[in-house]
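stuck on this fold:
=====
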Amino acid sequence: MAKFGKKYNAVVSKVDKNTAYPIAEAAKLAKETSTTKFDSTVEVAFNLNVDPRHADQQIRGAIVLPAGTGKTQKVLVLTNTKVKEAEEAGADFIGGVDLIQKIQKENWFDFDVIIATPEMMAELGKIGKILGPKGLMPNPKTGTVTVDVKKALDDVKKGKIEYRTDKEGNVHAILGKSSFKEEQLILNFGAILDAIKKGKPNAVKGAYIKNIVISTTMGPGIKVAIEN
């Protein structure tokens, strides 16, 4: 059985695991129960009444968080046609087949997001099995396969996140950092919640959102009240 330190046990005692808190109170508790010395990440997890085995029940998308993520994202742009645009927009890495081969041969992953122009997708498909499990494969649905490289880069730098259901019907997303003001966490939560609600499949019967939990890195889970 896992043993926790005095500091962790002290903050855990602040959270009633049987209570679903209004988001304002949950955000306050998340900040209070952050136990790390570094600025920990605040995350949210939605448990949805969906069956991801069916294509029409797979929830996936991307949004720009209104308060940002608190994280600096390194962006790789793969393109043959928008090199100058990518340079002017502030991409961290720019290349083509050369960088795709670098990922494949050298296991190079010094970036957080890949934006690709459409002509690169045939080559990128060759390393889909490498990028897919890491959540790095560009996709038109999330705006990372596009000819508008500048907008895509701007969105990422402003705090764009991607979300999708896992095999159990859960969606995990970043809310921000423990250093954020409560109002910022609440604002981001509202944006993600709206996106999840808009993605509700027609096939879903009954309650769509079954459970919501927020937590900080190494902090306790805090249930959030589901408001209609």
In short: The domain at 16-69+160-223 is CATH 3.30.190.20 (Ribulose 1,5 Bisphosphate Carboxylase/Oxygenase).
